[in-house]
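ok so dumb question maybe but i'm new to this and my supervisor (M.) told me to 'just get the structure for Phosphohexomutase' and walked off. so i did the thing. is this what she meant?? sequence i used:
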Amino acid sequence: MNSKLYPLQFNPILKERIWGGTKLKTVLNKPITSDITGESWELSTVEGDISVIANGYLSGKSLTEIINDFPNELLGTEVYSRFGKQFPLLFKFLDAREDLSIQVHPNDELAKKRHHSFGKTEMWYIMQADENSRIIVGFKEKSNADEYVKNLENKAVLSILNDVKVKAGDVFFLETGTVHAIGAGLVVAEIQQTSDITYRIYDFDRVDTQGNTRELHVDLALEAINYNTTETKKEYTTIENISNEIVNCNYFTTNFIPLNGVIPVNKNGKSFTVYMCVDGNFEIEANETSYHYKKGDTVLIPAAVNQFKLVGKGSVLEIYIS
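this is what came out, is it supposed to look like this??
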């Protein structure tokens, strides 16, 4: 094991959004200073929003600097082989005081051609849900570009989209091309490819404090949308003290761990691992040191830190690339 590396926490990158609120502070203890904070970017190498280490002797260094210095040790041998020195995932917490815009993300091929970017496959873990909260995800029935555009022009696009009631613990996996929106009253943990490419297709005719509407990307979205029906909700087991698989795709694997006690963890050095604490508290014991985490914390375990223990009582998402 590379003794220079250890479990890394990062300063949250906080984003004001027209639909944001205050739950990132009241539910997740984030240091927000605005009543419309919608996102906390926990781990990012998106240009202009690169995470900075908050703990240990590497404090103050950026994630890209550490990857550059320790590519195999931090990313893992297989991740480095596949992605080079790019960090391939982006981790966020979101607070939707209002509905987000209805939007869609392009696939890798389209995103590369148009934006020199990854596409944006993502998943949502619902951490907190107000009564009667819902998401919008996919089409009710198979559609096509003509029907979609007609409904959009008539401001009736909601009539052809799925409206799904949600509760805490629900998980949704959104492949690229899936039309979607997080609904009001939800706090969500989001795991996605490293991409900030979003095509906004309907924004409920909202205006900001200056009376301006947000830009829409109707034409760009047409080629990106999957007009078929999709199954997005993921069922999963919740057996204590094991990694219960939720999502296993080309871009990431996510497990749910109901932690109650001690779990020894042995990794193979092929991928970094990220833990997001979605309830309770836990510790990581590594290198004869204890690192403490609470609900709303995210920690990056470098691939070279391949033997450690999870200790505590809480609910944890475990993410890596397989």
